[in-house]
Design brief:
By secondary structure, the chain is mainly α. It has a domain at 48-84 and 95-131 and 149-268. Helix content is 47%, strand content 4%. It contains nine helices and four strands; from the N terminus they run H-E-E-H-H-H-H-E-E-H-H-H-H. The strands form two sheets. A two-stranded antiparallel sheet has the order 1-2. It has a two-stranded antiparallel sheet with strand order 3-4. Helix 1 (25-45) crosses helix 4 and helix 3 (104-111) crosses helix 5. Bound molecules: FE2/S2 (inorganic) cluster. Residues 113-115, 156, 212-214, 246 line the site of FE2/S2 (inorganic) cluster.
Amino acid sequence: MVDVPVTRLKKLGFAKTLRRDNWWVVPFLTFLGLGGFVVYATWSAFHPAVASGAPSYIWHGGGAHYLSPFFSPELFGSDESWFGAKPAWIPGWLPFSPALLILWAPGGFRFTCYYYRGSYYKAFWGDPPACAVGEPHRGHDYRGEHKWPLLIQNAHRYFLYLALAFVVMLGLDAWRSMWFTGADGASHFGVGLGTILLTLNVVLIAGYTFGCHSFRHLIGGFMDRFSERPIRKACYDGACKLNRRHQLFAWLSLFCVAGCDVYLRLLTTGILSSDPRLF
Ligand code: FES
């Protein structure tokens, strides 16, 4: 029998490691990207300017109809909302914004996403900051997601159903952005920069949603045999392809949704005087 030497591993302190690469770059960029997005989205949600009668999230210049994805669907708020003005049952002392009524759904979907979890556990909680890097000694190391509070992450499969509905609604917004009211009062097909951004937005969000692990399971991952279900197999293969790019779609769709909101704000506040039209 051969004696195998035993090496005792020593637990290192926070951020201590034997790694020689720049392991901190990815968690740091994740911290900046996600932190910046949350700060901007919160600021934007609380500045809808509905009371002035000219919401800062809808642009009608040049006959367009562009709605910021942060505020879509608009349940209550402006004249164009689904159910009219702010309802009386919302207390007056509560800050009101149409975005706050709906953002919890896509926000919850992203917060519980398998990819984002892995990223923000590292970037925000440092638990651990990266593979083989020392974590803070808090006396309660990560123990999986089968206990509270992380048990909530299992709600991801339910947030998926809401996210699928959002893909449809953002698709309708993109379609609406392709129709411009002309001087004759009729709708004419056209494409402006806002149309391109809102269409790109729904394409990226669809790529992110249809590449979700839970969607992959829903579309066919739960089955034992695909041989008798060619259509389901094709859908599953498509979801797997998107899943391999899930991280990419997660970031691109995040930046695009914020970019759409920024663009509409620049238009509605007059910083940009017009929306460039291709035709
Ligand atoms: S795993 Fe990322 S959205 Fe479902």
